[in-house]
Design goal:
By secondary structure, the protein is mostly loops. The protein has no helices and two strands. It has a two-stranded antiparallel sheet. It is extended, with a radius of gyration of 12 Å.
Length: 37
């Protein structure tokens, strides 16, 4: 769900899953990412 510039993930995640919240505009399926936090 989107409210103004905020997003709410309503389903599809499990406890312990990680979500990319910055710099994700150029990502494609299978792209390698570096976990920083």
């Amino acid at each position: 769900a989107r409210i103004n510039d905020k997003y709410e993930i309503l389903s599809g995640l499990s406890e312990g899953d990680r979500v990319i919240v910055q710099g994700n505009s150029g990502l494609i399926d299978g792209a390698e990412v570096e976990v920083v936090q």
